[in-house]
Amino acid sequence: MSTPPICPRCGQDRLHRYRFKSDGAAFSLCTECDSLWWPQTTTDIAGALFLDDVVAARLGEEGNPWTTRVWADVIEAVPDEG
Ligand SMILES: [Zn+2]
Fold it and tell me: How far, in Å, from the CA of 53 to the mean position of ligand 1?
């Protein structure tokens, strides 16, 4: 198993594999700064999205999506393969 890259935005954590519970769409997430990358996106600063923005957009909301829910309602960690 390869070691996931360090977050290019904050340098504080490695990128973790998460997915949306609703449809299983997987992405890479830094849990320190909440930066998100889709699999087809290069994991650099230019390609980084914010988890809050992506979640809000998927839910058809604006602003902070975490006033009425928590991460575990929406996303979950992808278990390591093997
Ligand atoms: Zn980060």
Answer: 15
CA 72–ligand 1 middle distance (angstroms):
19
Is there a domain that residue 37 lies in?
A: yes
pLDDT at 30: 98
Q: What is the pLDDT of residues 8-35, one digit of tens each?
A: 999 999 999 999 999 999 999 999 999 9
Please return the burial class of 12, using the count of CB atoms within 10 Å of its CB with bins 0-12, 13-18 and 19+: exposed
Q: Are 51 and 34 in contact (CB under 8 A)?
A: yes
Residue closest to 19 by CA, chosen among 51, 53, 63, 60: 51
**Number of domains the chain contains:** 1
Domain that residue 31 falls in: 16-77
